[in-house]
């Protein structure tokens, strides 16, 4: 009798232990796929110290000039948090508390990383910086642009051969696509004049956006995303004051004039590396584009969706597609451009900090 009782008890305890182990296992597996309780606690603790400025940068070679020379001071207690494949570096630039994160190349990486940054951390705004191709012949390699608007130039409706500007696009009638923004006609780019081309026309399309304060499942459309108006004022101040920028790659390779920071009308981004003169000229003529890159519009769109202040600083590394005296020198000038982008970023952060403390 007694034997049976203790045997039952043992069996019962064994079952409980099994359940505990099994549930633990389930929890840790779920956490690994999402966010661990430990990470969440660290994020929560960090957010208690107030909001920070988010700094989003595409690649390592663009981040390095900020990490070097003590421009970025890591937090001595929590220098970084690694979450879901991203390293969020915690620290300061000057007196400004920041979180710095690298996205990796192109629109999807930039969008995901910005979304994660905004979801996890308490932020006052987002600064994005890096290098870009240039579509504006009035500017020079090494100049640092701060566009007033960003557009995603990679959403197309590719029109079938035989249709033209007077024919509605596929799915235009239900509001999915539009002919309002304009198109590129392939026949216009033949070396020997042709009346037509089987590639016909591609029509530029706006993004669909679902803002945090909008109705879920009710889309808005936006093509040109404006940067934050206060950040733009600060950028214009920085432009006016002037920033000392790097002019020479080495003793024998210098730019014709000292580079400068410049606010410009427009930057465009898409999952496309533009090293083509005809397309560069089209982007400039059609959209008044200066900076061409692969991330900024994605960061801009996520910040717009979340109603978070945003601005981007992009230093020109090459005349996209070549054709100038300097030809296409992205390889030679990318490090100089990355350095110049960081110098303007530092000046911008300093000017922003002093304008915020004035406002307080
Ligand atoms: C194509 O070229 C013609 C002739 O130069 C011009 O009138 C037209 O605007 C161009 N179309 C596009 C979509 O660029
Ligand atoms: C194009 O942008 C420049 C600044 O980048 C501006 O000065 C100019 O007025 C703009 N042109 C048009 C047609 O919008
Ligand atoms: C300067 O840099 C250019 C581009 O990287 C290189 O081709 C050239 O050899 C360098 N010159 C010197 C003196 O280092």
From TrEMBL:
<keyword id="KW-0732">Signal</keyword>
<dbReference type="InterPro" id="IPR000845">
    <property type="entry name" value="Nucleoside_phosphorylase_d"/>
</dbReference>
<feature type="signal peptide">
    <location>
        <begin position="1"/>
        <end position="32"/>
    </location>
</feature>
<dbReference type="Pfam" id="PF01048">
    <property type="entry name" value="PNP_UDP_1"/>
</dbReference>
<protein>
    <recommendedName>
        <fullName>Nucleoside phosphorylase domain-containing protein</fullName>
    </recommendedName>
</protein>
<dbReference type="GO" id="GO:0009116">
    <property type="term" value="P:nucleoside metabolic process"/>
</dbReference>
<dbReference type="InterPro" id="IPR035994">
    <property type="entry name" value="Nucleoside_phosphorylase_sf"/>
</dbReference>
<dbReference type="GO" id="GO:0003824">
    <property type="term" value="F:catalytic activity"/>
</dbReference>
<feature type="domain" description="Nucleoside phosphorylase">
    <location>
        <begin position="53"/>
        <end position="350"/>
    </location>
</feature>
């Amino acid at each position: 009798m007694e034997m049976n009782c203790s045997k039952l008890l043992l069996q019962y305890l064994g079952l409980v232990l099994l359940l505990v182990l099994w549930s633990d296992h389930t929890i840790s597996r779920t956490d690994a796929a999402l966010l661990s309780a430990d990470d969440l606690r660290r994020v929560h603790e960090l957010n208690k110290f107030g909001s920070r400025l988010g700094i989003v940068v595409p690649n390592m070679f663009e981040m390095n000039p900020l990490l070097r020379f003590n421009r970025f001071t890591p937090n001595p207690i929590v220098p970084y948090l690694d979450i879901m494949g991203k390293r969020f570096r915690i620290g300061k630039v000057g007196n400004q508390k920041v979180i710095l994160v690298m996205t990796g190349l192109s629109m999807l990486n930039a969008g995901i990383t910005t979304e994660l940054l905004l979801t996890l951390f308490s932020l006052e705004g987002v600064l994005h910086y890096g290098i870009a191709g240039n579509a504006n012949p009035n500017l020079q390699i090494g100049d640092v642009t701060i566009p007033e608007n960003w557009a995603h130039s990679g959403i197309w409706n590719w029109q079938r051969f035989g249709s033209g500007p007077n024919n509605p696009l596929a799915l235009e009638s239900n509001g999915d696509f539009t002919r309002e923004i304009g198109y590129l006609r392939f026949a216009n780019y033949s070396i020997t004049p042709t009346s037509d081309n089987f590639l016909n026309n591609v029509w530029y399309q706006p993004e669909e956006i679902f803002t945090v304060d909008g109705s879920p499942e009710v889309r808005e459309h936006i093509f040109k995303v404006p940067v934050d108006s206060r950040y733009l004022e600060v950028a214009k101040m920085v432009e006016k004051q002037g920033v000392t920028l790097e002019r020479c790659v080495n003793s024998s390779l210098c730019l014709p004039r000292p580079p400068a920071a410049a606010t410009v009308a427009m930057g465009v981004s898409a999952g496309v590396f533009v090293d083509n003169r005809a397309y560069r000229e089209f982007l400039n003529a059609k959209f008044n584009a200066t900076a061409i890159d692969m991330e900024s519009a994605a960061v801009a769109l996520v910040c717009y969706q979340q109603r978070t202040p945003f601005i981007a600083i992009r230093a020109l590394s090459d005349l996209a597609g070549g054709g100038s005296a300097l030809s296409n020198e992205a390889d030679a000038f990318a490090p100089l451009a990355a350095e110049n982008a960081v110098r303007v970023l530092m000046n911008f952060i300093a000017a922003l900090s002093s304008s915020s403390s004035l406002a307080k």
